[in-house]
Amino acid sequence: MRSLSRHSHPSADGIEYVTGDLLTDEGIEPAVAGAAIIVHCAGSSKGDDEATRNLVRAASRAGTQHLVYISVIGADRIPVVSGIDRTMFGYFGFKLAAERIVADSGLPWTTLRAAQFHDLSLTVAQQMAKLPVIPVPAGFHFQPVDSGEVADRLVELALGSPAGLVPDMGGPRVYAMGDMIRSYLRTLSKHPLMVPLWIPGQAARAIRAGANLAPERAVGHRTWEDFLAERVSSLADGRSRAA
Ligand SMILES: NC(=O)c1ccc[n+]([C@@H]2O[C@H](COP(=O)([O-])OP(=O)(O)OC[C@H]3O[C@@H](n4cnc5c(N)ncnc54)[C@H](OP(=O)(O)O)[C@@H]3O)[C@@H](O)[C@H]2O)c1
Asked: How far is CA 51 from each of CA 42, 46, 157, 162, rounded to the nearest angstrom?
């Protein structure tokens, strides 16, 4: 197995690390040489379209037989139109463009749209917890999913036949964003003031209408509470060891 990263890593445990950058298109040809199956998880808040275009070009030359892509639930339903849409939710537009590049690549492909990962929700909650008063986007709900479970599903898809756009993968429960942050704050015994924040724009309106959710595809098992219980206790262990 080969893994592409922008940073060098010693190869270990049967994984050969290769260095390259999908945005600058450096190191991609050797990275994909001989790869029958590519699982494309590289992503950022912007530029996933350009990165995917470069990957697809190299994969086509390499004769790749299956390209598996991870996208996000709502990529096709969250419009990125105005300046505020682009600033706050441009990610969804980049993911949709990347999906189309994969679908139009001529390569056999599979795309899975997943909900927000618990890890990302934790990062957001940690940032918000630093504020004296926490603004919570009004009407936003999330259906967080465990990234390990998504990884298992990607492996299953990669080893199967190319399937095009497969059913979405959401976590087991839908939560109001404020409730998710509150659960995190409880683990810190913090109770700051939370105030609702109205986000303008079409993308925010679509999110308030649930375009980022797939309650009918609540196939993940690990809940936000399970994740927090494990992750926050391991963070606390790390802090007490460091003290
Ligand atoms: N996080 C979520 O909630 C969520 C939800 C649905 C879908 N997704 C999608 O799932 C994928 C992984 O998300 P994540 O949150 O796990 O991301 P992440 O932790 O930020 O990891 C992104 C990975 O992409 C690689 N990468 C980024 N830009 C690259 C470039 N120009 N060239 C080569 N490699 C590059 C990074 O590798 P190096 O830093 O080692 O170079 C890193 O391993 C992304 O496509 C994301 O859009 C994420």
From this structure: 8, 10, 22, 21
CA 55, 60, 64, 70 torsion: positive or negative?
Answer: positive
241: pLDDT strictly greater than 70 = no
Burial class (CB in 10 A: 0-12, 13-18, 19+), 233: exposed
Q: Are 78 and 115 in contact (CB under 8 A)?
A: no
Q: How much is the pLDDT for 100?
A: 98
With bands split at pLDDT 50, 70 and 90, how would you rate the model's confidence at 242?
low
70 CA distance to ligand 1 centroid (A)?
Answer: 9
Mean pLDDT throughout 221-242? 80
Q: Which residues line ligand 1 (CB under 6 A)?
A: 4-7, 21-23, 41-44, 51, 70, 72, 114, 116-117, 120
Write phi, then psi, for 137 (nearest 5 degrees): -50, 125
Q: What is the pLDDT of residues 95-109, one digit of tens each?
A: 999 999 999 999 999
Nearest CA to ligand 1 atom 46: 43
- pLDDT, tens digit (0-9, with 9 covering 90-100), for 92-142: 999 999 999 999 999 999 999 999 999 999 999 999 999 999 999 999 999
Residues contacting residue 206 through CB under 8 Å, at least 6 positions apart: 74, 77, 78, 79, 212
Strands 193-197 and 175-176: unpaired
